[in-house]
Each structure stands twice: as C-alpha cells, then as structure tokens.
Amino acid sequence: MKRIVILAVVIVAIGVFFALGLGDYLSLEYLQASRAQAVAQVQEAPLLTSLIFFVVYVVVTGLSLPGAAVMTLAAGAIFGVIWGVVLVSFASSVGATIAFLIARSLLGEWVERRFGKYLAPINAGLQSEGIFYLFSIRMVPVFPFFVVNLLMGLTRIGVVPFYCVSQVGMLAGTFVYVFAGTQLAQIRSLGDVLSPGLMIALTLLGVFPLVARKLLAFVAQRRAGALR
C-alpha cells in the first residue's frame, strides 16, 4: 500500500507539472526575462529564496522533470558562483538520490523496458570498476543526468555510495553551468554552455580514474611477476 501511495503521488505530481505548463517557468527564455526580479527577491530574502530554490530543484531532479539544466544556470545568474554551486551541488545530489530510490522501489520494470539497453554495460562496469565507473559516468556530459539516476536504481550499488559519488562526480559540470549562468545574456541555447572542447575535457577527466586504476593494476601485476 505504501508503494502504491508513493507511486500515485509521483504520477499526480508529474501530471500537475505538465498540465499546468510549469515547464514554461523552467525555460531559458523565462529565466532571461525574469532575472532582474529574481535577483531583487534574493537581496530582500536570501535565506527564503535559497530554500525555495533548493526545494524546487530537488523536486525537479527527484521526479526527473525537464528543467534541471536551466535551474543550474539560474543558480549562477541569481545567487552567484559560490552560493550557486553549493545550492545546486547538494540539491542535485539529493534529487538524484530520490530518483534513484523511486526507480529502485517503484519504477523498476518501466525503467528496464525503456532504458534496459543501457543497463547491461552499466552493471558490467560497476562489477569490474565499482564506484569509479559511476564517477566516470557522472563526469562525462554525454550521459543524461536523469537516465543515470534511474538506471543506477536498478543496480546493486548502495544509496550512500551513490549519493557521495554523485556529489563529487557532478561537481565539475555543476561549476561549468553555474558559472555560465553568470553570463546569462550571452547564452542563446543550452548548447552554448558546453563547447566541444569543454565536453572533451570533462570526458577525459571522467575517464582518468578508470585509466589510472587500470595502470596501477597493470604495474602491480608486473611487479608481482618480477618478484616471482
């Protein structure tokens, strides 16, 4: 019964989001048009606006709704780089963990049917590389944020490791988007945020732990062979 109630709440919340057109408020155009007003509200009540932003971000990411990227830009545009990164880093990690738990407890069959083709290599990667594999996925910008959350819920990784690795792994991408938000007037689309060079740099940074681990294992194996 508890699972049915939670599932019903999730479905209703998603339905309300789309039925009321709330996604329009999470668009780049709306953010650019309302930035001055939002900054004024932050100056009047910084703690309250920070709390509201945090809760909305958690709900959006927890329910895998569209708009997380724009909200990350909004954090930089409204709160500045430092406080924006703090808010988004924790809100995105909490929201990701909620989506992870929803997929694990409620949406397992649906997620597997829709994204199952990605699941086998992820399970294989986790089995061979452990949390380093999740860290690499989090760093590489080509993997959709919400898909990683949902698929990880179908694996055997624990909740605490998932949260901690997500917090660290998403930090670089969070900083890039929050910093880009401070230059909001120059952004015409979300594609302007991640240049090809920056995507390559983040990908290499994400793959580095796996490569380093392989090299260390190789060196250890060679040394063990030499001692024999």
Written description of the protein model:
This protein has 228 residues and is mainly α. The chain has one domain. It has helices at 2-19, 28-44, 46-62, 68-79, 81-105, 108-129, 131-139, 145-152, 159-169, 171-181, 196-227. Helix 4 (68-79) runs antiparallel to helix 5 (81-105) and helix 7 packs antiparallel against helix 11. The termini are far apart. The model has no long low-confidence stretch (mean pLDDT 80).
Task: Provide the fold topology.
Layout: H1 2-19, H2 28-44, H3 46-62, H4 68-79, H5 81-105, H6 108-129, H7 131-139, H8 145-152, H9 159-169, H10 171-181, H11 196-227
Helix pairs in contact: 2-3, 2-4, 3-4, 3-5, 4-5, 4-10, 5-8, 5-9, 5-10, 6-7, 6-8, 7-9, 7-11
